[in-house]
Design brief:
Helix content: 40-55%
Shape: globular
Number of helices: 15
Largest sheet: 5 strands, parallel
CATH superfamily of the largest domain: P-loop containing nucleotide triphosphate hydrolases
Order of helices and strands: HHHEHEHHEHEHEHEHHEHEHHH
Number of strands: 8
Structural class: alpha/beta
Radius of gyration: 21 Å
Length: 350
């Protein structure tokens, strides 16, 4: 039997990329990722056994309806007088576990809303402020009818104050808000920090939102097979060689490289990449590195990039200590997404 020759193609290496992202690109790219580029309320399929899912669709459709009309209509409805705090919640907050469709619904709201509008993760929002400066970020977003914030996370008191202040300013300017998270607004930060000021900031932030609970199982695991076992190093290398646009990296080299690239550039790091091939996946050594990997996993998931990997299975890369800590929800989300992408590896590894 003749074994087909592997094309002599050199895969790109993420570890050799040093992307530069202009600030205006950060604003222009505040749209739903490709995975959710065409979703709608109609394409969301509520679980009949979880009535909160259908109720969430109803609430969001109603909310979307209030965004149509004159650009200042929302301000008239939601504010007692210009410059005052809103008479009612200025947005909706989708709370639920992993894989219940929160991002699908948030993107559906964005698609249903009139422009101007913006959509980004919490990390992307804080990176935008870092790139533009606070006042410029307020100016850039104040003309929007709607700001959607996905995966709302508060990792430190500084980010809490920053985002709380930013959203407060945007609400004053008539911007409506929608967000997703795995934790109710008044519970954000629980298990991470106990400073009174931090908790007080969380309470002020929570007041802007109407919480909408979404119950259910992780759809990525409903009736789906277990994650495939890791490939051999040779199989990973060969898959990268025969796949146009594949990136090939040793896992340890990639983790080290992430420390030299700002997380706001992780999306650009993946520009033009069709698949990610990783040799020698191993447990992540420390929490700082783990949090960087979480951001990269989110960007890979957004782009639906299949991951072909050797070494440790993705459900074993975070230690038990990490999974018991304050960032547990982030790590579990990353595992869920990496396992999902690993299931897609058959598209390039077979």
């Amino acid at each position: 039997m003749t074994v087909p020759a592997v094309p002599n193609t050199r895969a790109v290496s993420l570890s050799e990329r040093h992307p530069v992202v202009p600030a205006d690109r950060l604003v222009a790219e505040m749209v739903p990722p490709p995975r959710f580029g065409g979703v709608s309320f109609a394409s969301y399929l509520p679980d009949p056994g979880q009535p909160s899912q259908a109720e969430a669709v109803r609430v969001l459709e109603e909310f979307a309806g209030t965004l149509n009309g004159p650009a200042d209509g929302g301000r008239r409805r939601w504010f007692r007088r210009a410059g005052q705090t809103p008479a009612g919640p200025a947005g909706v907050y989708l709370d639920g576990g992993y894989g219940v469709g929160k991002t699908h619904l948030l993107a559906s709201l964005w698609h249903a809303a009139p422009g101007p509008k913006a959509f980004g993760t919490f990390v992307e929002l804080t990176n935008l402020v870092g790139a533009l400066g606070f006042q410029q970020a307020v100016q850039a977003l104040s003309g929007h009818r709607l700001l959607c914030i996905d995966e709302f996370e508060l990792d430190d008191p500084g980010d809490t104050v920053l985002v709380s202040t930013l959203l407060g300013r945007l609400v004053e300017n008539g911007v409506r808000l929608a967000a997703t998270s795995n934790t109710l607004p008044d519970k954000l930060g629980e298990g991470r920090f106990a400073a009174a000021d931090f908790l007080r900031e969380i309470q002020g932030l929570a007041a802007h939102f109407r919480p909408v609970r979404i119950d259910g199982e992780d759809y990525r695991h409903r009736g789906l097979p277990d994650a495939p076992p890791p490939y051999s190093d040779t199989a990973v290398t060969e898959a990268a060689a025969r796949t146009p646009g594949a990136a090939l990296d040793d896992f340890g080299d990639l983790l080290a490289h992430l420390a030299a690239v700002h997380p706001s550039r992780y999306g650009a790091l993946l520009d033009g990449v069709a698949a990610v091939c990783l040799r020698g996946v191993h447990p992540v050594p420390d929490q700082t590195t783990a949090l960087r990997l979480v951001v990269l996993a989110d960007r890979m998931y957004d782009r639906e990039l299949p991951v072909v990997a050797s070494g440790t299975p993705f459900d074993a890369i975070f230690s038990e200590e990490m999974l018991r800590g304050g960032y547990r929800k982030k790590y579990l989300r990353a595992v869920s997404r990496l396992v999902s992408l690993a299931r897609d590896s058959s598209r390039v590894a077979s």
